[in-house]
Specification:
The complex is a heterodimer.
Chain A lengths: L8 H29 L1 H4 L3 E2 L2 E2 H31 L17
Antiparallel strand pairs in A: 1-2
Chain B lengths: L2 H22 L5 H6 L6 H12 L2 H14 L4 H25 L4 H8 L3 H45 L3 H52 L4 H18 L14 H17 L1 H4 L8 H48 L1 H8 L14 H6 L5 H4 L1 H4 L4 H39 L5 H24 L3 H27 L5 H22 L1 H4 L21 H17 L6 H10 L7 H7 L1
Helix pairs in contact in B: 1-7, 1-8, 1-17, 3-8, 3-12, 3-17, 4-12, 4-17, 5-10, 5-12, 6-7, 7-8, 7-17, 7-18, 7-19, 8-9, 8-12, 8-17, 8-18, 9-12, 10-19, 17-18, 19-20, 19-22, 20-22
Classes of the chains: A mainly alpha, B mainly alpha.
């Protein structure tokens, strides 16, 4: 790991919080706004033969959940490296050592 | 060969594999026992989380629930998957960095209080025991339905019911691999159990999709099946299957989904899985894999729900109820097994009466027969149901054991205990847990089933807020957390009792004391408890002293995957 990482740790945490918030907003919009609040309206749109509101509630939302968790894992790993706070591959924090 | 023979073959094969793994993965230290030496690869851990999570209810009952509820069944599909987004983004990586073994560990250390630790341990025990009793009962039911004729002579010889023999066999298997292998044995058996249950779920789903539409992929086949189903429902005078809010209003669909999601993220037996991986990075990827493996079953379940419903309604419109009872083999088989009451089906039976006499569990259990599949598939579905129940039961056993032996005994009663002594206490705790859970499966208590249904509300109202605030807000203190937890838990518990008084007292009080809380029913009430918990924790924390500096440093430390030095920590502050 280099001595001077690209971003400092205050920026690291702010970025982490901002990204987490954006992903959770998408989570809320997909699960609650599209699949519940607007389900009746969206059902008038046909999505491959299926009313769209229904498809979001029983299929689409689950695909989005998987994507959100995947995007989080990829971006968080990259952010760790940029801020120099990634774990090295051989040493891992053992229980009880963290404080 | 008959269904009975095939079931016996599958059960013997899968159980032998589980025992083989138990012997191969014996452990000798507490780290191996509680967190599998933190050496579980992420993909394997993802599968283990999936098996741990998907219980007998997910495997056997969920598709049936969705099939009978139509759109409104989405609360379970979204509720039990969307919670993993909260878990992955808000809890898993941070709790893994914190290290240690259990959720009460985090609560006790973060809120610098043995009282908080014991309260958390008791809450974890309470949730886990109610849950595990249901699993043991599930094992007994699968055994008696599918292997009844084999076990009847033995049961008659011992003077007990078949279901009791089933529970005892299931208990012995779980006790064997959990006591010997601890978390390591449990994890590797869960990986195998995931493979068994997903194969058992997919084969009938693919076959019936192909049978109905010529497209073997269930997710694609629904595009053709749903319009036919909606049309048929309308012709028969039912609501369209895809139309929302026929069984639950929008407010309750929202509240129940939210409670199931936040409850999922607060359940100790799910959270503890993320302690078993080797790093923070691995915890993030475990969550990805877990949700992929869970998503496979959860996106196929609604398809199975639609296919079976279409098959049933088509048979009804072609044959009528009387014709179905006389001509269809699966109706006769499942009437014998007690899951269909077709004795009263006559020429005038309406579609609603027909549906009311069919148990929802049929949807999964009878799918292979509906699709005309051979007997070996039916037997495999039974083995899949057992795998789902046993894997969840064993994960819960680890939580029960660690709450008792680690949090209560090792940290509070006898902190000086040696490594060997801790391991022995852990093993005794698992063994005792299995026996108690088994007894609860043999002698089921009415209120236990009731509490399982509300475990999510209780977890959402107690654990979720103080875990999230504990990680993201340094000034959150002991007074706030204890007050918040008690408020959330007490409010939710009392509301559930008031709304379910007629069930909890088994009719002694004939009606619910209150119907709803401003329109929110018992299943969704946890959301109000959770909001109260957040509000009380924040208000009390703001008006009392800040947590000690070393706790605030710990919260800072938990935010970064790598262990920071003291100088680095001070730099940020």
């Amino acid at each position: 790991m280099s001595d001077r990482p690209d971003i400092d740790r205050v920026t690291y945490w702010k970025t982490q919080i901002r990204r987490t918030s954006i992903l959770l907003i998408v989570w809320f919009v997909v699960a609650y706004v599209m699949s519940i609040f607007l389900a009746e309206t969206l059902n008038s749109i046909s999505f491959g033969g299926i009313p769209f509101g229904f498809w979001m509630a029983q299929q689409g939302s689950i695909f989005v959940f998987v994507s959100l968790v995947l995007i989080y894992a990829v971006t968080a790993d990259q952010l760790d490296k940029d801020a120099g706070v990634a774990e090295s591959d051989d040493s891992t924090s053992a229980p009880g050592e963290s404080h | 060969m008959s269904i009975l023979t095939w079931t016996a073959i599958w059960v013997v094969i899968t159980f032998s594999v589980y025992i083989g793994i138990a012997i191969w993965s014996r452990v000798a230290d507490t780290k191996g026992f509680y967190v599998a030496g933190q050496g579980i690869p992420t993909v394997a851990n993802g599968m283990a989380v999936g098996a741990d999570w998907m219980s007998a209810a997910s495997f056997i009952s969920m598709a049936g629930l969705v099939s009978f509820m139509g759109f409104d069944g989405s609360v379970y599909l979204m509720g039990w998957t969307g919670g993993y987004v909260l878990l992955a983004l808000l809890l898993a990586p941070y709790l893994r960095k914190f290290g240690k073994y259990t959720v009460p560990d985090f609560v006790g250390t973060r809120y610098y209080s043995d009282t908080a630790r014991v309260v958390a341990a008791v809450a974890a025990l309470f949730v886990s025991f109610t849950y595990v009793a249901g699993q043991m009962r599930g094992v007994g039911v699968v055994f008696s339905r599918f292997l009844g004729p084999f076990l009847e002579p033995l049961a008659a010889g011992l003077g007990v019911e078949v279901i009791t023999i089933g529970v005892i066999i299931g208990m012995s298997i779980v006790a064997l691999y959990a006591v010997l292998g601890g978390m390591k044995g449990v994890t590797w058996t869960q990986v195998t159990q995931y493979c068994v249950l997903i194969v058992a779920y997919m084969i009938p789903a693919v076959a019936i999709a192909f049978d109905l539409t010529g497209n073997p992929i269930p997710h694609g086949a629904i595009g053709e099946v749903l319009p036919r189903l909606d049309q048929l429902q309308t012709d028969l005078g039912l609501n369209a299957y895809s139309g929302p809010f026929a069984n639950l209003d929008m407010l309750n669909v929202f509240c129940i989904t939210f409670v199931l999601m936040t409850g999922t993220a607060g359940l100790p037996h799910v959270i503890v899985r993320f302690y078993t991986v080797r790093s923070v990075k691995a915890a993030r990827w475990s969550a990805v894999w877990a949700l992929v493996f869970i998503g496979i079953l959860y996106t196929v379940a609604p398809a199975v729900a639609m296919f079976s419903r279409l098959e049933i309604l088509q048979s009804f419109s072609e044959l009528g109820a009387q014709g179905m009872a006389q001509q269809l083999g699966w109706v006769q088989n499942w009437t014998q097994a007690g899951l269909i009451e077709s004795s009263n089906w006559g020429p005038n039976t309406s579609v609603q009466q027909l549906l009311n006499t069919i148990d929802q569990d049929i949807i999964v259990l009878a799918t292979p027969e509906l699709a005309g599949l051979s007997n070996w598939v039916v037997g495999l579905v039974a083995a899949g149901g057992l795998a789902a129940a046993l894997s969840t039961a064993s994960g819960l056993m680890i939580v029960i054991s660690s709450s008792l032996a680690h949090d209560v005994y090792g940290e509070v009663i006898n902190p000086e205990a040696s490594e060997q002594r801790r391991l022995r206490v852990g093993r005794i705790a698992i063994f005792a847990g299995v026996v108690v859970a088994g007894l609860a499966g043999i002698y089921p208590l009415g209120f236990v089933a009731e509490v399982v249904a509300f475990a999510f509300g209780l977890a959402a109202a107690s654990f979720f807020p103080i875990l999230v605030l504990g990680i993201f807000w340094k000034k959150c203190n002991r007074q706030g957390a204890v007050a918040g937890m008690i408020t959330g838990l007490a409010f939710t518990f009392i509301m559930i009792i008031l709304m379910r008084a007629h069930v909890v007292t088994e009719g002694a009080i004939p009606d619910p004391i209150i119907e709803t809380f401003f329109g929110v029913g018992a299943q969704g009430i946890g959301i109000v408890g959770m909001i109260l918990n957040f509000a009380v924790t924040i208000l009390v924390s703001l008006n009392t002293a800040n947590p000690p500096q070393d706790v605030q440093d710990l919260v800072e430390q938990v935010r970064y995957p790598r262990e920071l030095t003291d100088e680095e920590l001070r730099e940020v502050a």
